[in-house]
Design goal:
Blueprint lengths: L1 H21 L14 E11 L4 E4 L4 E6 L6 E2 L4 E5 L2 H43 L5 H40 L2 E3 L4 E6 L6 E2 L4 E7 L3 E8 L11 E6 L8 E8 L4 E2 L13 E9 L10 E7 L3
Antiparallel strand pairs: 1-10, 1-15, 2-9, 3-5, 3-8, 4-7, 5-6, 7-9, 10-14, 11-12, 11-15, 12-14, 13-14
Helix pairs in contact: 2-3
Length: 298
Amino acid sequence: MTFKVRVIGMLVCVGMLAGCSAEKVPAPKAAAAPVAAVAIARGKIDTQKGILDIYAPVEGEVDAVAVTEGASVKRGQELLRLQATAAELDLSLLQAEIGQTEVALKGQQESLTRLTQQTKRLQEAANLGATEMQKVDEALAQQKQAETAVAMTRANLEILQKRQAIAQWQIQRLVIKAPADGRVLKVYAQAGSRAGAGKPVITYLPDGALVVRAEVNESFVVGLKEGMLADIVIESHPDAKPLVARLKKIGQVYRAAQLDDESQVRTNVRVLECVLEFEQQPDLRVGQNVRVSFRKQQ
């Protein structure tokens, strides 16, 4: 009897094991297929406004530099000032000349007022027969001369005032100000140095959203459409998760490649510059090299 119980128990266990092995085991999920790329290009991180080289408006001696490299500045803030001594002296002379002309004009206007009143009285007297018309004619001639002198002095004063405005503008433009909110990247001048034409005095980075400027080979351009997505990989961190950007603008003019390692060897390589905007602003620096993989549109 004991033997039969043991046999039955063993059969029950075998049946249970068979039932368990018959249950379906869920199959592993297939790995997501990589997104196909229609074009691959090299690019650089930049801002929408780009880096600006600021030049002195005229050649001259630097009087003072108001900022340091790395400084964050606001639009209209003074960056650098050129020596303005000569321009200020010219302005002082003009202001003195304007003052003298204004005094002369005031005297001429007072004289004209007296002559006008005198002519009026003589005309009234002549109408009553109390004076000769010759005196009236002489008074009218003097009045006319006074009117001409006033007109000429007033015109001269207007010319001087315009010259004064130009002189003031010349002084104002010797003060170089920030064109927009941003950051000073490089200062090439110092107090006492000479700022020359064609040489920047400051390199400036305006604030703005980061973008990618990619150089797309002419053979891949046909597959590009504004609005398509692209994966951005930082060349210095190739294993990092790609960033997502959207193609905002496709260039209209082909030019020689500047970012291609072989561009100096393959001088016939022609590219279009394309601008991409990030879906979310990354923590990157202007000038970083990237690889751009344009996704095939679904």
